[in-house]
Amino acid sequence: MTAIRDSLAQYVAVRRALGASFYEPALALGHFVDLLEREGAEFITTDLALRWATTPVLVERATWGRRLSQVRGFARWMSVIDSRNQIPPTGFLSARRRRNAPHIYTEQEINLLIIQAARLRSRTGMRALTYSTLIGLLVATGLRPGEALRLNRSDVDLVSGILSIRESKFGKSRFVPVEESTRAALERYAQGRDRLCQQRLSEAFLVSERGIRLKAGTVRSMFVRMSRAVGLRPATEDGRDRYGPRLQDFRHSFATGRLVEWYRDGLDVSRELPRLSAYLGHVNVGLTYWYIEAVPELLELAAGYLGKNCPGEQP
């Protein structure tokens, strides 16, 4: 077995250990390695990847794009082992809109955003209280922004510290337990909200300055302002916004942080991952696995973990 074929066996083993069936991609990548071995290549090149991806004739371009995407995932894995391996650019043979890589917030960036949120001015002070609490909630739980905005007062158990997420994405509902510090912060928010908005105009847990449920578009616009204020979203000379970190990226940061902690602690991530997947409300564990390919640090940790615990494992 060549070194690159042995690396493919390890790559497939990781994908399957984390819940993906990975049957068709494993077969396809095996054929790609056949090409590398026939060419005497010791590492992956973009030229060879493109040649292999476009080999089938009388097929749709999407098929070529899917084959190249399979090689791209394997190439990311291989580049951790040997930097000579080339990762085919994402613009080649793109068959669909490319998924943006997540921004993983640092602790310093999170602190700056919460401080900026607490400085937001409004007539009653409700805006600062709500936005600082919203950011803290997303950081602490990994909720989707829409899930946080749809929380009703009855969905937040301030005694036991459990959030009820009802019919979220794909119609899934779940219970989300929170840490004691998060429960206490939510309790303080509820007390402040009821003091500043004594007239109950909405069943929403998080409310606006007017005491009604926050609108998603308004929240996104406010977050852009806060991001620009702390230097996370620079503007062009004509004043237009450049693309920058999103509210959704707090969810990515939460998931990535848990995976990094588990790998560093030497835990069996294949056993822990289903718990994280259920906590986040993913339909299947394969969606959670995406974070490993999206974040280079996780890819390196996963490769190191498998090298220590599953040397030479076969697909």
TrEMBL record:
This protein's superkingdom?
A: Bacteria
Q: In the UniProt record, does the keyword DNA-binding occur? A: yes
* A biological process term (GO) from this entry: DNA integration
Q: Where is the Tyr recombinase domain?
A: 100-304
Give an example GO molecular function.
DNA binding
Q: Which Pfam families match?
A: Phage_integrase
**Keywords tagged on the record:** DNA integration, DNA recombination, DNA-binding
Among InterPro entries, the record links this protein to: DNA_brk_join_enz (IPR011010), Integrase-like_cat_sf (IPR013762), Integrase_catalytic (IPR002104), Tyrosine_recombinase_XerCD (IPR050090)
Give the UniProt family note: Belongs to the 'phage' integrase family.
The protein depicted here goes by the name Integrase
Organism annotation? Caballeronia glathei
